[in-house]
Amino acid sequence: MLIVNAYPVIFAASQSLHGGSLVETGPFVGLQNFSQVLSDPAFWAAARFTLVFAVCGVFGSWVVGYGLALLLRPKFPGRSLFRVLLLLPWIVPIVVTSMSWNWLTTGQDSLLPTIARELGFGEVLFLADPVLAAVTVCLFKIWVSYPFTMMMATSALEGVDETVYEAAAIDGATRWNRLRYMTLPLTARSTYITWVLMAMFTINDFPTIYLLTGGGPVNATTSLIVLAYQSVFRDFQPGYGVAVAFIATAVLVVVSLVLFRKIRGSRVE
User: Fold this and answer.
1) Angle, helices 111-118/94-105, rounded to nearest 10 degrees
2) CATH of the domain at 229
3) Could you report the per-residue pLDDT of 162-180, keeping only the tens digit for each?
4) Are the C-beta atoms of residues 50 and 244 closer than 8 Å to each other?
5) Contact between 33 and 17 (Cβ < 8 Å)
6) Which of 108, 197, 226, 231 could disulfide-link to 241, CB 3.0 to 4.6 Å?
7) Is the previous residue joined to 217 through a cis bond, with omega within 30 degrees of 0?
8) Is residue 269 one of the residues assigned to a domain?
9) In the predicted model, is pLDDT for residue 262 greater than 80?
10) Quick one: which of 237, 226, 227, 244 has its CA closest to 18?
């Protein structure tokens, strides 16, 4: 653990306090790299996209996954087959999935631009327009992540006693009331744990963005992790890039602590 985790973190922290390159540590500059990061418009642009990407990735995938878990809860023929098929976006390697989405969206003759053109929207290039590229990346994240949230929700729902719903139905509770006042509170602990894990996965997600757009166009889909990578390995500014990564880590720790407090207070008697 010390070799694999502690040493790289300590070395990275040292790099963030120096102004060197990939091959040498360079002079000690203190917190200058952090000051430069916080005053850089590119950092705040990446932070805004990271926030949007994280919110869409966490809550979008949870809504889809939880909804599918509810639909697949009743027993019916072929339920296990549907569950396996719905896991495919998560099982298939991200490289293959990103190639599929590129095939669907990139070229003028791709499926989605062709559909948009036939519907009268003109030439719509989903990965060439900054707004559409950001929307596409967020939808892609939801697509590859909802199977995880579906599995977490399925596990939580299977732990709820059916007699609770039977008693509520006898008392006249509607399906919406049972969902709002019983299902969601009874599975709240699992939900908060899912949000914590998805927040970690999303904020630290590099391949989903990089394989689909590379952070473009015009840095519209550059997240903090992609910015850190580009700063270190493209611009050869490890101090700046590591500072970005540490700031993203600090934000993630704060978010995790808030959600862990929710987990401790989510006991339902």
Assistant:
1) 30
2) 1.10.3720.10
3) 777 778 777 777 888 888 8
4) no
5) yes
6) 231
7) yes
8) no
9) no
10) 237
